[in-house]
Amino acid sequence: PSRAEPSRADSRSDPSTVPTGGEPLPRRGRGPALRPALRPAPGRPGAALPGARRGSWLRHSTVKAAVAAALAIAATPALTDAGARAGTLETVKARGALLCGVAESLPGFAYLDAQGRMQGFDVDFCQALAAAIGVTLKPVPLSAKERFTALQAGTVDVLYRVTTWTLNRDTQLGLNFGGVNYYDGQGFLVRRASGLRSARELGGASICLNTGTSTELNLADWFRLHRLAYKPVLFEKSEAARAAYEAGRCDAYTTDASALAAQRSVMQRPGEHVILPEIISREPLGPLTRHGDDRWGDVVRWVLNALVIAEEKGVTQANAAEAARSSRDPEVQRMLGTTGSSGAELGLPPDWALRAIRAVGNYGEIFERHLGRSTPLELERGLNQLWHKGGILFAPPIR
Predict the structure, then answer these.
(1) CA neighbor of 181 nearest in space, from 110, 94, 83
(2) What are the strands of the beta sheet with 288-290, ordered from one edge?
(3) Which residues of the chain have pLDDT under 50?
(4) Which of 315, 317, 341, 316 shows the shortest CA–CA distance to 327?
(5) What pLDDT is stored for residue 94 in this prediction?
(6) How far apart are the C-alpha atoms of 313 and 173, rounded to whole Å?
């Protein structure tokens, strides 16, 4: 999570003194790096035997250390295999359910439908993963503050919660990103009646946003770069930030552009609010898994890749079964399990990708169902269009 920033772009004052709209929150830093849970404690040499010389003891210790190192190296493959067998994939199979962390309530991405079922863009990627493994899905709603701790502690198996891939998160939290399922960027929502046409006109404005997110640092960086003052009004939950902005407590609301469209769609008068043209950051959003469980990370990554490849190859939810029987495309055959051994290599059934696609469709179908022009969000594909159609979306080959 990013560090809170000063309220003035060039200030060096303590950000914990910044007003928070009547909802003061504790100051947050980046937090210490998560240490591996099973790191051995540093060893201590035992006391020298009676009558032993110091040189003899040192030689004895050196030999012991060398032998121990050699044994550790020799045992590495077996330990790695054992760790993989006892990893998250086997835990999920034994449980019979995938615990997937998602947003608490973000229209389009993770939300409750009229029947009380969790739906959304991220939820569908969770469902595809569960289907590929052959288990049921149990979505676990999490706030921005809770998400990383929940994954680190094993409360969830994977996190699909509109989370930006950054260097700090990739290196300091003990977590791995498993690709990108949505390319986004941070923007600003303002009232149409304000007459604002550019983010550069927001000098001195109060801005609602979520704490514990990369949004805080992006905002501070941009205002510092443009030598503008601003007043951050921080909230833990997105609904609270949106409600405060809608009630007039802030001049603007900032988060990822897709989330701005999502939050605007549930406002009382969506047409009275506009998203300014500036995108002030790069926000590649994707799934996370825990460090040290590469096999599970591979499964999460390749299920996502398969949904992208399926769209490129024209494999849909409706025709996937027929494609498995009759497609002459070698990669489609490998992906759907007609040929090759991708399932065995991942520790999944041979038809793992077929199961995922039949459950939710390909990437394009998921996008259009939850985020596209026919939804309240009315989002264009943009960067999330396939690479040969003007976007940057593509996946490594299955071979």
Answers:
(1) 110
(2) 136-142, 97-103, 158-159, 288-290, 175-177
(3) 1-85
(4) 315
(5) 97
(6) 36
